[in-house]
Write a structure and sequence with these properties.
399 residues, 7-stranded mixed sheet, 6-stranded mixed sheet, alpha/beta, 10 helices, Rossmann fold, 2 domains
Length: 399
């Protein structure tokens, strides 16, 4: 368990207000896919926790002047690198906002989510940020609910949202809806899909069907595969045999998309526009793939994240995981609400559902009544060595 307070610093935070121009001043102050898969970051994962503040071995001292907030992330085990990156990002957010009224204490879910949650509640925390994994959120949610403490999880598994659990993770359903809407606006009307077997693929397929129907277009074929070369080839040939399509969603990682695309081009999809999901945003290698040039995908904006990554490397000596932005933005949200939240009292969870939403490193977002974060997404096109934004993310939500 580690504790973080906020010294004085504000450069990235000030930059967000100047460069972002997204509802910060007006209305408010991000595994692992649906199967709790944690994507790799650009730097090596740390094998163990790094102290971000003085270690606390006993219960926390009485503190009536600051808000107690718990951060539940894996600081040990296979996902420790991701957890440490998120924890470090929350520290940066406290520094940048000068949030001297908020105290964040980190609890390691790597040794047990239930134990971490119970310890956090026993220490008097009134809000839980995390956990990272959906399976941990399912454990922590009911424990926190009994204490009337909201949970803002970094998972994107929408099945764990509700009953006091809010989901901040990047939702593939929303990225699919955004890119389909954009493609339809560009005149594409016959959609096909290749989806991996498993939960992520099933949910992506359902999201595509709904998005295409809502856009007034047609899904002409959808095939599943198990990521083996033979399975991919068989699925692509089934697409070719069953239909002609002008847009093809590859609902998998960028690495898999680079394997799939050449097979598509040789088997009936030579002129089809390739579409991806938010998973593509974490794979910079896509930009160097000639076979994916012209492909579109929707994701949160990287504009402010690049500033965070630079600041992170300067302070910690390595690159952050992309999911670290969720930790940063969860602190911005907390600090915004803390202006009207009396220390020691119940966290005003209703404020999480402000219609105008919040702003952060990942752009504008807001929680619906279902507890799922709705995000303003941009659409990017893969070019020769770079990603180009072809449809910027909205700066704010309509009330």
């Amino acid at each position: 368990m580690t504790e973080t307070d906020a010294p004085r610093q504000a450069d990235l935070f000030a930059s967000m207000k100047r460069a972002g121009r997204i509802l910060f001043a007006a209305t408010a102050l991000l595994v692992a896919a649906c199967q709790s898969i944690v994507p790799k970051g650009p730097g090596p994962a740390q094998t163990g926790p790094t102290q971000t503040g003085p270690e606390v071995t006993e219960g926390l001292p009485t503190d009536t002047l600051r808000h107690r907030v718990a951060l539940l992330v894996p600081m040990s085990g296979p996902n420790a690198g991701v957890g440490q990156s998120i924890a470090n990002a929350t520290t940066l957010a406290l520094l940048d906002t000068k949030a001297d009224k908020v105290r964040i204490t980190t609890y390691d879910t790597g040794v047990g989510a239930a134990a971490a949650a119970n310890k956090a509640l026993a220490d008097g925390n009134k809000l839980i940020l995390g956990p990272l994994l959906a399976e941990d959120a399912r454990i922590v949610g009911p424990i926190a609910a009994r204490a009337n403490v909201p949970v803002i999880s970094f998972s994107n598994d929408t099945s764990v949202a509700g009953n006091g659990v809010y989901i901040m993770g990047y939702n593939p359903n929303q990225s699919i809806e955004r890119v389909v809407e954009f493609a339809k606006g560009k005149g594409l009307s016959k959609f096909a899909a290749l989806v991996p077997k498993g939960t992520y693929g099933e949910r992506s397929g359902t999201a595509l069907l709904r998005a295409v129907e809502g856009a007034g277009a047609t899904v002409v074929s959808m095939q599943t595969f198990d990521r083996s070369p033979a399975s991919i080839t068989a699925a692509v040939r089934k697409l070719q045999a069953s239909s002609s399509y002008d847009a093809l969603l590859i609902a998998d990682s960028g690495r898999v998309a680079m394997q799939v695309a050449p097979i598509v081009r040789k088997n009936g999809g030579a002129t089809a526009r390739l579409l991806g999901t938010e998973l593509w945003n974490t794979d910079s290698g896509l930009a160097s793939s000639p076979v994916l040039r012209g492909a579109w995908f929707a994701s949160v904006s990287d504009g402010l994240y690049s500033q965070l990554a630079t600041k992170y490397r300067a302070r910690y000596g390595n690159a952050p995981f992309r999911l670290s932005a969720l930790g940063y933005d969860s602190v911005l949200l907390t600090v915004r609400i803390a202006r009207d939240w009396k220390p020691g009292t119940t966290f005003p969870a209703a404020r999480l559902r402000d219609a105008g939403g919040f702003a952060g490193i990942d752009g504008a977002f807001r929680f619906g009544r279902d507890g799922i974060a709705e995000r303003a997404l941009e659409v990017s096109e893969i070019g020769a060595g770079t990603f180009t934004v072809v449809a910027p993310a909205p700066r704010a939500f309509a009330e």
